[in-house]
UniProtKB/TrEMBL annotation:
NCBIfam families: transpos_IS3. Involved in the transposition of the insertion sequence. Residues 120-279 form the Integrase catalytic domain. SUPFAM superfamilies: Ribonuclease H-like. It comes from Apilactobacillus apisilvae. It comes from the Bacteria. Pfam families: HTH_21 (PF13276), rve (PF00665), rve_2 (PF13333). This is IS3 family transposase.
Amino acid sequence: MVNQATIKLIDTFTSKIPLVRICQYLNISRSTYYYHKTHAAHFNLSQIEQEIQQLCIKTKFLYGYRKIHALINKHLKCSVSKVQRIMAKYNWGCRIKRKRSHRPGNPFKQFDNIINRDWNISLPNRKLTTDITYIPCGNKMLYLSTIMDSFNSEIIAHKISNHPNTQLALDTLNQLGYLSGAIIHSDQGSTYTSREFFELARKKGAIRSMSRKGTPADNAIIESFHSSLKTEMIYTQAKPKGLADTIRCVNNYIKFWNNTRILTKLGNQSPVEYRKSVAQLNN
């Protein structure tokens, strides 16, 4: 049986994506869709089920049961196990698949991994991480360079280019002011081991740290963000059409990530909400 959340999800996107394609993606037939749409009244949900259903639809099925429980528990008390059972019953779970990429390096100068996967920090702008990822755009690729603050996983600088070169990394780093002893972590790609990036980071007062070669897990927090961006972007907005639209979608997703998307490790707050709440506590 197809749940009504799936029917509502299909209805949300039919104005932008052909019904045939949506049904193929969800692995259901059009006749099944029309049957459940016509007989919606026969699929009644309890109040708690309706609340969970609406939250899952509102968050584009990006969250698992723990985050949905955190949201619903703000106004309707229930156990996390009940939320888990209901979401499993109607197949309302997170629909995201993780993707990983690996790029070889051509080092000019290497640095030790002084972060060593310890991203915990109580102050902003102390532990930063950076990386470049690809963004599909029709039959070509765009490249996104980002810098994340591990204090709250906020993207504090980003730049999109047609080429994954050193200039892209320099333009991104130049969006930040003097770093005054902050650690900036990267992989060992030629972009980050170049003389130009070395000189710019030194002038900004940054301490360098690098992942071990062939070990993307050493920079997992920004790898995870890039994976979320590429897999979640299609759920939060229409599929990009062309260069300008792809750039707009990426910028909108980063704004969504910083200001709206809640993270479990931040107490189910968005990065910006967490930063502001910590600042208020320290004042």
